[in-house]
Amino acid sequence: MQIHNQTILILSPHTDDAELGCGGTIRLLLEQGNRVHIAAFSACRHSVLAGFPEDVLVQEIKASTRQLGIPEENLHLFDYDVRTFNYHRQQLLDDILKLREYLKPSVVFVPSINDIHQDHYTIAQEAVRAFKFSTLLCYELPWNNFEFKTTLFFELKKDHLEQKIQALAQYKSQAHRPYMNPEFTRSQARMRGVQAGLEWAEVFEVVRMVITQ
Q: Is residue 96 part of a domain?
């Protein structure tokens, strides 16, 4: 699937979700001349490990997205408390609708609508409401997905994968999490590549595909 000269919006419930779910595809989309925006809704201030400043994830996502090549003005940060999104559905929807009107994205990436994390699930649900007339693709966070339809594969080259790994390496405060291990990232991309007859890939679930003239 070739996407050129489009505005792409990635909704990231927490600061690292976009890179984890589609960091390699972000690099690919940027190379194809697209304008990529990331909206992150929580810096998880109440979950930061002792020894790190409360706003460490704000600084880390800035470093991570800069590593991927996203201009700082294309990073949109909100400050919702982690694990409370289901109590703020209307406010979240209002913020998402403002992004829709401001950016007018043609392709939107969100967590899976079957993601069991309450924040991820809420963002996915509200995105479906907001972007029912847009191409809507769910990215994979397998530790939270009980089911995931592998309906769209983006082929990655090794550089795309390594750029994703380097972007994730900016999250020093999250290095203890097993899914931040570079070998996990490589193994996942390799496994999804094999499924599509490719060397490396990221996979997405198609919620809606809109092709315009």
A: yes
**Torsional class of 96: left (φ above 0), alpha (ψ -120 to 50), beta (otherwise):** alpha
* Predicted local confidence at residue 1, as pLDDT: 64
CA 18 – CA 106 distance, rounded (Å): 17
Q: How confident is the model at residue 197 (pLDDT cuts 50, 70, 90)?
A: very high
Tokens of 168: 């994730």
pTM over 0.85: yes
> 157-166 burial by CB neighbour count: b if 16+ within 10 A, else e?
eeebbbbbbe
Structure tokens at 38: 């990331």
Closest Cα to residue 185, out of 161, 163, 204?
161
> Which CATH number do you get for residue 204?
3.40.50.10320
- How many separate domains does the chain show? 1
Residue 197 domain boundaries: 7-208
What span, in angstroms and rounded, lies between the C-alpha atoms of 72 and 132? 28
